[in-house]
Amino acid sequence: MLDYLQRILNARVYDVAIESPLDLAAKLSTRLGNQVWLKREDMQPVHSFKLRGAYNKMARLSKEELARGVVCSSAGNHAQGVALSARELGCQAHIVMPVTTPELKSDAVLALGGNVILHGDSYSEAYTHAMELQERHQYVFVHPFDDPDVIAGQGTIGMEILRQHQRPIHAVFVAIGGGGLISGVASYVKAVRPDIKVIGVQMVDSDAMIQSTQAGYPIELKEVGLFSDGTAVKMVGKETLRLTSALVDDFVKVDTDAVCAAIKDAFEETRSILEPSGAMSIAGMKQYVAEHDIHDEVLVAITCGANMNFDRLRFVAERADVGDEREALFAVTIPEERGSFKLLCETMGQRSVTEFSYRLGDEREAHVLVGLAIRDRSEVPEISESLSAKGFVALDLVDDELAKQHLRYMVGGRSGASGNERLYRFEFPERPGALMRFLSQMHPSWNISLFHYRNQGADYGRILVGIQVPDEDLAVFREFIGTLGYRCTDETDNPVYDRFLR
Ligand SMILES: Cc1ncc(COP(=O)(O)O)c(C=O)c1O
């Protein structure tokens, strides 16, 4: 720890980084009943903390090493940190990015003078190519997290927080990808004020560090969720695992909806738009406060990045209220008789309706999709009760992906010709051409009877498919689904399907 304390105190970051502000988040403080501070790393010159570690590593290279040039692989913030540092130090940076990298990100690196090399479909392929280039040209490899100088550079954030807030702090919340940021921050905090808790935040579908600390060695994940791209790491580093295991007090896992809600919280507080990884600390903090019933404490969340693709905002805005449990979604069954639709509207009272879809059903009953703005989830049972008091049956759909992702955007309704239909929800990494690739893999001998896809600017494409499969073909069909290699959920027995689509 002493070694890291010295490294952090001696780190060279301020040639390129600013001492970012530690801002009081007044609205979040009131809502959470704690004093919440945001460490604004989104305000760094390249809109993330990554330049601290990259610069500290590169500023320590010899003249001869700098003359050879550096290489790294990254699809995002590390690339910009390395390119900016190289420009400052007058060296050439070769940055290998997957061919699927959005132009916005490769353009940012080009604008900083980096030599962009597009290679491979994934981060791992880009990484392998960067290692080959290192061997071939004797470049210096700048690791995104598993390097003591990179870790020490990120640790300067911990140093600044303790200088900026000298009164008691209960906990600091930190997003984890490969673990460089939390290793640096925890090394400083635990050396100087060990009473402060350091809490790591990971995505539920990208939790390599949590799994690795439990196992005691780096676990390699087969797949990682891409929504929070800055933290989508399949395998953490040896050194970051060692430091995190020794120093981090606790971990929280958050989901996409919670991160969207946190992006909205940060926007309301600061008018900045954080990228998903940048808002994970806030999502983790909210969850931790609720789970541990914490009041009147001082909490710090590091808002570590704001390189958000603009076209993702639609998805984020749509999911934010659901994630914050500010929107309830119901399927309400009403008798198909005169006045019952009006009665349903009256039962909603003064509540703000976010969505209302009704279509005359059969002669007996109709199903209505109703979205309502709520303060929190505790209101949901109350609403269900007021509906059933009037003779309506309400199905709570807040956790139903079929309803949230597809049903509310679909046209077509029910079909009398949907015999033998099975309903599946698929997810696949969203890339140019991915939808066509998916379609071309569908078996030609089964009839597609329902299809819904909507590009939401998220990293996963979501498709709902109805396929008519005769009973005798079911076993072969299930085998075929297994060979597609996409995440798949059978929704055939979902009551939403029965009520609105079949
Ligand atoms: C915005 C953002 N947050 C968090 C992380 C994760 O940092 P680390 O890999 O050091 O854990 C990254 C990594 O690039 C990032 O860009």
Write the SSE topology.
Layout: H1 2-9, E1 22-24, H2 26-32, E2 35-40, H3 50-59, H4 63-68, E3 70-73, H5 77-89, E4 93-97, H6 103-111, E5 115-118, H7 123-137, E6 140-141, H8 148-164, E7 171-175, H9 180-192, E8 197-203, H10 208-215, H11 238-247, E9 250-254, H12 256-270, H13 276-292, E10 298-303, H14 313-323, E11 327-335, H15 340-348, E12 353-357, E13 365-373, H16 379-389, E14 393-396, H17 401-406, E15 421-429, H18 434-441, E16 447-453, E17 460-468, H19 474-484, E18 487-490, H20 495-500
Parallel strand pairs: 2-10, 3-4, 3-6, 4-5, 7-8, 7-10, 8-9
Antiparallel strand pairs: 1-2, 11-13, 11-14, 12-13, 15-17, 15-18, 16-17
Plain-language structure description:
By secondary structure, the protein is of the alpha/beta class. It folds into 4 domains: 2-49 and 148-321, Rossmann fold, CATH 3.40.50; 53-141, Rossmann fold (3-Layer(aba) Sandwich); 325-399, 2-Layer Sandwich (Alpha-Beta Plaits); 407-500, Biosynthetic Threonine Deaminase, domain 3 (3-Layer(aba) Sandwich). The chain is built from 20 helices and 18 strands. It has a 6-stranded mixed beta sheet, with helices on both faces. A 4-stranded parallel beta sheet has the order 5-4-3-6, with helices on both faces. Strands 12-13-11-14 form a 4-stranded antiparallel beta sheet. Helix 12 (256-270) packs across helix 13.
User: Helicity level, as a percent range?
Assistant: 40-55%
Q: What average pLDDT do the residues reach?
A: 90
Number of separate strands: 18
Q: Would you identify the CATH architecture of the largest domain?
A: 3-Layer(aba) Sandwich
The CATH topology of the largest domain is: Rossmann fold
How many distinct domains? 4
Strand percentage lies at 15-25%
**Most strands sheet:** 6 strands, mixed
Structural category is alpha/beta
Helix run count: 20
| Amino-to-carboxy terminus distance | 62 Å
* Poorly predicted tracts of residues: none
Radius of gyration from CA coordinates: 25 Å
Main sheet: strand order: 1-2-10-7-8-9
The top level CATH class name of the largest domain: Alpha Beta
Question: Which small compounds were modeled alongside the protein?
Answer: pyridoxal-5'-phosphate
CA-based shape? globular
